[in-house]
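Appendix C: a fully annotated inverse folding record. The material below is reproduced so that readers can follow the format used throughout the book. The structure is listed first as tokens, followed by the designed sequence.
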């Protein structure tokens, strides 16, 4: 269908350009498709003009208030958040799944997101030098009232224009879940005006590309006169599915700026430090304690039992088995023959110390009770032990 061609990256911007954009034949998904002012949200151009025939609209962010007059769309400038008053931005984000999705005419992803003033109830804690906050509840202004924007047209020496006024201060009051009420939170209409106007740089904006290039171009600051502001982004947070999470982080950053401003007014409250308490269920420890006690009893019985066995005490607790059974056969026979003579049957106090030493030329040296016996040893090849 034919619609206003206002989204291409090569177009010029400016407030007056909104009425100067020409109509083109487009194929895609339209907002208000049955009205006389259908808006292409994602799609591509149809036609024979080679300079623009390859243009594709990947995504559009559409604020629900008119850019120049601030007139609300859909009644009060919202679709799903009509109860919210004094919103900062209420925007439609429509994103194609991919460039191929536009070419294949697949349905896009449409989201409505709102950024608004609010008061938060928090629970703070401090532990080991770290301060944390838990958001318990959030309160916005949902009271009924007139639309805050007023536009007044004028004509001066430079031509026609429109004066915009934000007529309402931001005031938020309410009741907490425990029955207590709060009030006195808000800001002036001048601050609200400047905050809202700051978002005109990015709302509305467009993400475009062409059939001949895979580069996605973000077009923004459409209110400025002259050539459009374009930027190629390695990562575009205004595309699905990251839009909602990006706005969440943006809201947190704006909140931190407000709370850290030089003219801030502090609110006294309670802060808590954490203490750790351990609750022991003794019945669950009955089994490991019983197992530990039985192991201790078994150890004592083993000590009592083996303390009466004096015949193998020295042999069992020494390193002799490892040394002896690692020796050559003839050396083992020499030592084992000494055991048969009663060496191992002596009491620990009567046991004779046996020393074994390997000499480079004479082989193994085994010490007896009083003399050292040399056991000849045939030396093996180099490196043999």
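Designed amino acids, in order:
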């Amino acid at each position: 269908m034919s619609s206003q061609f206002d989204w291409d990256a090569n177009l010029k911007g400016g407030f007056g350009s909104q009425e100067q954009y020409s109509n083109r034949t487009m194929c895609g998904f339209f907002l208000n498709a049955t009205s006389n002012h259908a808006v292409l949200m994602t799609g591509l151009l149809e036609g024979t003009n080679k300079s623009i025939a390859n243009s594709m609209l990947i995504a559009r962010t559409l604020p629900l208030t008119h850019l120049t007059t601030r007139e609300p769309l859909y009644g009060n400038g919202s679709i799903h958040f009509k109860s919210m008053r004094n919103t900062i931005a209420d925007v439609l984000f429509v994103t194609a799944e991919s460039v191929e999705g536009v070419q294949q005419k697949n349905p896009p992803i449409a989201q409505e997101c709102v950024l608004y003033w609010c008061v938060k109830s928090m629970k703070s804690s401090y532990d080991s030098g770290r301060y944390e906050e838990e958001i318990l509840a959030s309160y916005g202004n949902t009271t009924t009232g007139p639309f805050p924007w007023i536009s007044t047209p004028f004509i001066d020496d430079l031509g026609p224009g429109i004066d915009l006024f934000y007529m309402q201060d931001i005031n938020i009051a309410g009741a907490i879940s425990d029955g207590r009420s709060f009030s006195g939170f808000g800001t002036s209409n001048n601050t609200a005006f400047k905050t809202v106007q700051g978002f005109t740089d990015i709302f509305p904006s467009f993400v475009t590309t062409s059939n001949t290039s895979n580069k996605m171009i973000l077009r923004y600051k459409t209110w400025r006169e002259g050539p459009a502001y374009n930027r190629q982004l390695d990562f575009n947070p205004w595309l699905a599915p990251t839009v909602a999470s990006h706005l969440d982080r943006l809201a947190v950053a704006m909140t931190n700026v407000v709370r850290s401003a030089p003219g801030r007014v502090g609110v006294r409250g309670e802060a808590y430090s954490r203490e750790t308490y351990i609750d022991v269920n003794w019945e669950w420890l009955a089994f490991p304690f019983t197992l530990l006690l039985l192991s201790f009893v078994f150890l004592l019985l083993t000590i009592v039992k083996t303390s009466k066995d004096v015949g193998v005490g020295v042999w069992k607790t020494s390193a002799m088995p490892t040394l002896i059974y690692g020796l050559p056969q003839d050396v083992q026979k020499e030592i084992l023959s000494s055991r048969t003579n009663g060496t191992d049957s002596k009491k620990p106090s009567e046991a004779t110390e046996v020393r074994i030493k390997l000499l480079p030329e004479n082989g193994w040296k085994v010490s007896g009770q009083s003399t050292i016996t040399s056991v000849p040893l045939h030396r093996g090849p180099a490196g043999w032990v």
